[in-house]
## 1
Amino acid sequence: MRYYLVALFDNDSYKEIEEMQKNIGKKYKLYKNLPMLHITLEIVGDPNIEKLDEILLKILKPYKKFKVEISDVICFDEPYKSVNLRIENKGYISRLARVINDTLKLHGFDVREVIQDWDLHVSLANTNFAAREWSKNEYATACTKAKKLGYHRFAIIERVELWKPINNKKEMVVKSYNLRDY
């Protein structure tokens, strides 16, 4: 099973982004339960959870809560049909993703080979966990409208979590790592 290491927002940042997610989800009737907003830092294949936890605790120990820049709307076409917010690939978020990838690779974990090609993003709407598949036209319209509205803000990352790939908030969180206060 693949696990996802994700960065999560503080409540204020989350609520702002969630408004946009709710609008798209409601208009196109995509979700019964909205998926959690997050930034995927790494995907780990079949990890030894105890060993992974030990390594992540060491990696994350010096990190404080930090800001990320959300700079625009980006869309990923078929098969994803995904409307997303672009995270600027710079600063703490970029360094954290790189350090996690490099360190886990050194310890023999199954992680992405090349992370430079990875666009950090927050998925607002896509086919994962959707109650129904949205059509090409619905997706294209949603993407165009979201791009016209645009989005540029700073958001605060307050914790990192290890998730199972399911849309059940109670069962999906395997481990949670709170970042230190400023």
## 2
Amino acid sequence: MSSSSSNWSAAQSSSYRIPRQRMVERLRDHYRIRDARVLEAMAEVPRHLFVPEALQGRSYGDHALPIDANQTISQPYIVARMTELLEADKSSRVLEIGAGSGYQTAVLARVAGQVYAIERIGDLARQAQARIRSLGIYNATVKCFDGTMGWSAHAPYDGILVAAGGPRVPDPLLAQLKVGGRLVLPVGESRESQRLVRVIRTEEGFQHEEHGACAFVPLIGRHGWNES
């Protein structure tokens, strides 16, 4: 067994195995998440290691949780639904904006071939990178930057996931999306509430879909909200 597999096995054998299993059952039975790869990833990634120690007992509940720097780790359903909407597989190159704790990054790394993640808060980016490496995840990289600008060095992407809500779809992300690729993000006219949107790039342009109401922390950056 590889060291990567050993790390995953050690995480799996933790005392949180049963709550994690119940979380996956809720995603499948209540929320109707159908992609088996997404459910498998959610079953394997130890969510409790991505939240503050005092909150680990609540890590598999049906809610978002606070992390450092006034940010959040998204509700498990939102992580699963956004990942499902990406339709990524092991041939996919995926860009993630707003890595936060690194949990969504770790889930994406289980379903995609390569993940490039951006987090604008330096301390969170460093912690996320260390966390995913400690779990033996080597097909994902986290860097600190303005995520609304994308990461052009690795474009075009098969999928782009934005884990923060902006007032509009950032133009650089559209430009870095491959034809046939999918961009999943929350968009709203206020910082407090958004609609979950999927944009599919076609030969003719961009096809927009709406997938329900959601609430995310603000997407801060040149093509998002201002800091203040």
## 3
Amino acid sequence: MAVIASAKDTVLVVTYQIGSTPEGSPILRQRSFPNVKSEAVDQDVFDVANALYGLQDYPLIGVRRDNRVDLAE
């Protein structure tokens, strides 16, 4: 039987730097923003992350999009 995949939702995950260790290594944190529409364009998701973290004191290091998919027979 074939498996049917249906898009559920997307989670925006951002990585940002909150400081440095005494040795100079970056201290990184991640924050997740759930309930992003799965139909959202990648560029729009990226632009929203940049706009949000443009208002913060911490520099944005990375942006990730995690798509969640339901699988059924």
## 4
Amino acid sequence: MSIAIDLKGKTALITGASQGIGAQVARTFHRAGANVVINHLGTPGTTADAQAIADELNLIRTDSASIAAANVAEPEQVKTMIAEVQARHGGLDYLVNNAAIIKDRTIAKMSYEEWDAVIGVNLSGVFYCCKHALEIMREGGAIVSFGSIAAIQGFFGQANYASAKAGVQAMMRVLSREAAKKNIRANAIAPGVIDTSMAATIPESVRAEMLKNVPLNRFGTTDEVANVVLFLCSPLASYVTGQTIEINGGWRG
């Protein structure tokens, strides 16, 4: 007997989904039957990338993917985006908080602007999206927010990023209690190093050192992360909430 994840008739909003892991999450949810809303920053580049993904998915299933511009660090833009989702889909079933930026520097050298920018997108943006998405989320929905291995390992030069991601993981534990009255589950994932364009900027010598900490001896793929997000939103994870799921190949550095 096979086990299938069927999200037909459901709507998923994925933030920061114009490329990388977010784009793969959108494709994975779409493959499971969901309608997907692809959030992007609203620049010409992200607009074009997001629209290309939506066009790709709409060729597979007509009118099943749309794009929504919003800087998640700006609460008014988030409110507008959520209102657009409500108008188009009548509500929301799944929120995936993927949008993130990095501005690495040691604490001694980090500017206030670098701190505020990363906290604004990676932590406050998750709060704004959760707060306003909950207003339109249907009972039995799910929220998955991206934490990071950085929140656990405390990598050099990532005080802003690690702090934000640790905050996200704590926020999901709180939200799992607050949203339970509507049977909405809230979880975080903590990916390790995943093969994306961002990871490609890591110097080769640093990548080699990182791999020494990974028992599976490779970095993860966007598919592997997206599949865990899909599981956490699916009925197969109906008793999983308030957790942080590590996706890191066994990293124990």
